[in-house]
Amino acid sequence: LRAKGPPMTRGKKGSREGHSPDALRWATDAHYEDAERYDRTYRLRRHDVAFYREMAAEHGGPVLELGVGTGRVALAIARDGHEVIGLERMAPMLAKLRARLASEPDAVRERIELVRGDIRRFRFPRRRFPLVIAPFNVLMHLYRREELEAMLACVRAHLTPRGVFVLDVRMPDIRSFTRDPERAFKCPRLRDPSDGTLWDTAEMFQYDALTQVQMITSSFREAEPAEGLPPRVYVKPLAHRQFFPQELELQLHYNGFSIVDRWGDFERGPIHVDCETQIVVARSRSATRSARR
Q1: C-beta separation of 167 from 139 below 8 A
Q2: What's the pTM value of the predicted model, to 2 decimals?
């Protein structure tokens, strides 16, 4: 099974020039257009939620969340009593979050402000935050250096003098980069909790070393179709910019940040070669220098 969408561009003699901008945007949008399915898939992911709740308790609010999605993190922080501004580009995700908010107490709804916007260029006049967060691989959708720099400049401009920027991204998995890009790797069967449909699933991995972007195409084939009907099939792409630890440190440094903490899991364990996640707490270097004086 193959996803339909913009292909990788090709140079002379078939050499790859990397994923085209259209392909990257298509792969990003496609992953978040079905907000209902996204919400069902990730709603039970809780270990990072507990961590960001701790961050909010330590640094206080208001909290600015970049890529608020369907509110998995923001709702938990708001329930704890903190004001949250959630920035999100995808309209379906915001619509789902608004639907979830409808069942929350008035006090929680009043603490959450939703803004449709781009994390690469946002501006809240006269608003500063002691805590800005980018959970669940948000930075991995910034595919070019200029995009990352623009986002970091916006974050730096919106932090209080002692505010911190907290993010998590996946640790690059070298083994997945070397997988045959033409092969579909079988995954465990999934049962959709909304209607009980059982799906056979598989993933294909295509890593582009020039851009450090990995394209993951997940395919879903109905395992038990209705009698006399062909199985339903759909594919879901996802494009992730890979950030190696030293590169991430350099990107933050040259964009005016100092790393004050770095962990390899959401229990604040040390970062190491086999961890799945990089968690970074950074502060503006100008604030760090002022604190030392």
Answers
A1: yes
A2: 0.89
